[in-house]
Write a structure and sequence with these properties.
With about 325 residues, the chain is an alpha/beta fold. The protein contains 11 helices and 12 strands. The radius of gyration is 22 Å and the shape is globular. The relative contact order is 0.17.
Length: about 325
């Protein structure tokens, strides 16, 4: 009898371990640093936080507006946030670029939210026709420390133009006003998942603008130096100013945590995201582009994947063999 009872207890324990944590056991409070208030990242993250909490009522996720990628890196490094929206994890992990001279930052990837396209915009009647025409011009690269600024700086550096333009760092809405007033000659805008940022949409809908074309061969040095970026494409009609499909410099909006997040919580968040895309899409159009097929896109091989997230991706069969799972 005792032997039978011991076997039953062992079976019950094994079953409980296999079942994983229940919704009631997934708990805690987490802060998610995203980007500026009203940005696509802020709105999509807020939608995700809402849906995750519906499925796991004991799990609280507060979305925090920040200056963007660079600030998020420093906030997660100092344990001030638990999830970081990041566009340049390679630089942060290797203390290069905007992070030169700072400590290397340990980031554990959760998932890729969407692809970003960086576009250089001028007024439609501007004499500027090419990137090289921007020599000596005033160009807004985006708010200092933002993911857009970092990407734009890499783009202009690759073209050999970064030290040949006057760089401004206005907010996105202020940059729109400056462009219309003629105080700047161009600005770098953001199209995420084929959807323009709020600021770019407002500019495009209210002002006649053009997008300056970029060439892949002129951007290769940026891709080699900054592996967070790669060739991308935007399609005709994504904004009024894009009349035909265009090659662009692309980056990736990827969410990262670190060892402070448990495997159970990371698994729950990632699983909830990809099993509720239809619901998330009702909050924001970009959420409709979330797909397990692109969930691991853009994650630099040097950056490891959170064990909880990796468990989910391996379960559904989309693991990238060049990636490594972080170890505790």
């Amino acid at each position: 009898m005792k032997k039978t009872l011991a076997i039953l207890l062992s079976l019950m324990l094994a079953l409980s371990l296999c079942a994983g944590a229940s919704a009631e056991e997934i708990s805690g409070s987490y802060s998610w640093g995203v980007a500026s208030l009203g940005s696509s990242a802020q709105m999509v993250a807020s939608a995700i936080a809402t849906v995750v909490t519906e499925h796991y009522p004991q799990l609280s996720i507060s979305v925090q507006a920040t200056a963007g990628s660079s600030e998020n890196i420093r906030l997660i490094r100092n344990d001030e946030i638990d999830i970081a929206n990041v566009n340049d994890a390679y630089n942060a992990a290797t203390a290069q670029g905007a992070y030169e001279g700072e400590p290397e930052t340990t980031l554990w990837a959760l998932f890729n939210m969407y692809e970003n396209a960086y576009v250089v915009c001028v007024l439609e009647d501007s004499p500027i026709q090419s990137m090289d025409d921007l020599v000596g011009k005033r160009v807004n690269l985006g708010p200092a420390g933002s993911g857009v600024y970092n990407a734009a700086a890499a783009m202009f550096e690759s073209y050999g133009l970064l030290d040949q333009i006057t760089v401004t760092t206005y907010s996105y809405t202020d940059a729109n006003d400056q462009l219309k007033q003629g105080s700047i000659d161009a600005l770098v805008g953001l199209i995420s998942g084929e959807v323009p940022s709020t600021a770019l949409a407002e500019l495009d809908n209210g002002t006649a603008i053009r997008v300056i074309p970029t060439e892949s061969e002129r951007l290769q040095s940026a891709y080699e130096k900054y592996p967070d970026y790669a060739d991308g494409k935007i399609h005709a009609g994504c904004i009024n100013a894009v009349k035909e499909d265009m090659q662009v410099m692309a980056g990736f909006t990827i969410e990262y945590a670190d060892e402070r997040m448990s495997d159970e919580v990371a698994y729950a968040i990632v699983k909830t995201v990809y099993e509720n895309v239809d619901q998330l899409s009702t909050y924001h159009q970009i959420a409709s582009t979330l797909s397990v097929d692109t969930a691991l896109n853009g994650i630099p091989a040097i950056v490891k994947v959170h064990p909880g997230a990796a468990k989910y991706f391996k379960e559904i069969g989309i693991w990238r063999e060049d990636l490594e799972v972080a170890e505790r």
